[in-house]
Amino acid sequence: MSTNTSGTFPLPQDLENDRIKLVPYIPSFHSEVFAELSKKYPETYKYIPWGHSEVQAAFDSETFLREHKWLLFAILDKTRPPSDHLVGSDGALAGTIAFIDCDPRNLSAELGAVLIFPPFQRTHVASNAVGLMLQYALNRPSEGGLGLRRVVWLANRLNEGSIRLAKRFRFQQEGVLRWHMYLEGGPAGNGKLLREEDPKPGCPGRDTALFSLCWDDWEGGGAKENSATVMLRIN
């Protein structure tokens, strides 16, 4: 089975603890189940600028992942059995998570594509996935990490769950990007109302809350200790 080599940071074979495992997202292996879950739970995409068909196309495109410098992982919940189409995997497909816009020159990346399907929301999945990714990003190389200086988190300003999760890991809010994106269809309650004659009717606007977690926050502000509860193992 080939691995995702689309990004510009070293990609571990997997990151895991006793409850979840993050493995490189492999379209030929994960996409069928991911597509089924996306169609079954369209509310997963409520606050993001893409619909599930666009996300599926992006995740299936090595060209997209490479050009946008993504390191994309599938999240496996080890506490639940794998789906029929994922026989041999270490758990049920719970969602995805990624390093986006990897920038090795400035030692930074965005933590994004955090898509958790409803049966796995409000469980251990999201916090463990984020904790594992942050440890890999911000721990020193001697600790098995990349030693990055900065990790960015962007959230729809109305997405209270995403903002709450960022704050739990001590991300610091730097500001709000007003009318930053448009949302592909969906009710206006997911974003901002439009004026008459807007060129994108039916696509609400999105204010984006901008957060960051930097190495000095990580080592000096308690974030590393919070994340340590997820017990990282890098293979």
TrEMBL record:
Disulfide bond is among the record's keywords: no
Domain of life: Eukaryota
Entries under InterPro entries matching the protein: Acyl_CoA_acyltransferase (IPR016181), GNAT_dom (IPR000182), Ribosomal_N-acetyltransferase (IPR051908)
GO molecular function: protein N-terminal-serine acetyltransferase activity; protein-N-terminal-alanine acetyltransferase activity
Record domain N-acetyltransferase: where: 20-189
Pfam families noted in UniProt: Acetyltransf_3 (PF13302)
Keywords: Acyltransferase, Transferase
Protein name according to UniProt: Acyl-CoA N-acyltransferase
